[in-house]
Design brief:
The chain is elongated, with a radius of gyration of 17 Å. Helix content is about 85%, strand content about 0%. The chain is mainly alpha-helical.
Length: about 80
């Protein structure tokens, strides 16, 4: 166990941040899953800006890598264009 006050505080901060990051990571994955499961093109096009915004925010806050966000946005746009 840690012996310094600063290291105890760091442990508390890390636990809080981990929970925060897990929540937003899971929210992002669910949003992407929901968009991929959509078969209606109009509905998917309405959902895309919200998912894109979420991905950009998470990349900005370093919860996910910026290239991962870019790859996901590209794949989702491709998916929507394929829908009939």
């Amino acid at each position: 166990m840690a012996n310094h006050k600063s290291s105890l505080k760091r442990i508390r901060q890390d636990a809080t941040r981990r929970l925060h990051n897990r929540y937003y990571g899971k929210t992002m994955r669910n949003a992407v899953r929901k968009l991929r499961a959509t078969t209606d093109k109009a509905e998917a096009q309405n959902m895309l800006p919200g998912v894109t915004k979420l991905l950009d925010k998470l990349a900005k806050k370093n919860i996910i890598h910026k290239n991962k966000a870019a790859n996901l946005k590209s794949k989702l746009a491709k998916h929507i264009n394929k829908l009939a």
